[in-house]
Design brief:
Elements: H1 7-26, H2 34-57
Helix pairs in contact: 1-2
């Protein structure tokens, strides 16, 4: 199992997730064309997805993972 994600990483993910609807809502108000709103929303969503995967992949492991066995025979009996 992975350990819990730290609070700082959750904050960044939450801010990026909140940025997507903010771009959609305030983009036309700020004078952005619809094409730019779509492009910025897609780029923000891709950055959010990349950061979410990277954060989970780099979480510290606690040693109870199913693939860590004591014998190196290659057979785990599953």
């Amino acid at each position: 199992m992975k350990s819990r994600i730290r609070r700082g990483n959750k904050l960044v993910l939450a801010l990026l997730a909140g940025l997507i609807p903010a771009i959609i809502l305030f983009g036309p108000y700020l004078g952005l064309s619809q094409a730019w709103v779509v492009v910025l929303s897609i780029v923000t969503a891709l950055v959010w997805g990349w950061l979410a995967i990277w954060t989970h992949a780099n979480a510290k492991a606690d040693g109870s993972e199913w693939w860590q066995d004591d014998s190196a025979s290659g057979w785990r009996g599953y």
